[in-house]
Design a protein that fits this description.
Elements lengths: L1 H10 L18 H11 L4 E3 L2 E6 L2 E8 L4 E10 L5 H13 L4 E6 L2 E9 L5 H16 L17 H18 L1
Antiparallel strand pairs: 1-2, 2-3, 3-4, 4-6, 5-6
Length: 175
Amino acid sequence: MLRALCLTLILLPGLALSQETAPTEPPMTLERLANIVLALDPDLVVRGPALEFTLDDIPVVVIADPGADRMRAMVPIASAEGLTVDDMMRMMQANFDSALDARYAVAHGRLWGVFIHPLSPLEKDQLLSGLVQTITVAKTYGSAYTGGAAIFGGGDSNGIYQDLLDELRKKGQEL
């Protein structure tokens, strides 16, 4: 029954289910974004459409472009100069399954953790979650390469984590 319902919803995109919906938040604006961030860090610095602040001792920059209806939260991780092919491969694997809504990115000679989202539909909890994930990909670069506790699955990260677990188990048997 559930499978038939799922197939119906996939095959008939015009089908609308009638149900009550929860009230939505007002559209995200640069002013609303700044007020949310100001509550997180009273030392917020506003430079035009850029918000600079610190969370958990990590510098964060959020840039919003209302005209394009986009926002981007960025956390510097390291210089991109020394990145190896293996580093890049691991980051791309993490972008697929373990970085969640955050991503590893390279721009202007630097490795970044980023969260990118349309501005107006962004809800407060989505912003907060995106900021946490972005900080987490920065903190776990070089080790777990994760945006949080979950792994989407279907990628390579589970196998890599399993290999590490197997290796640790073997070492445990040798002791």
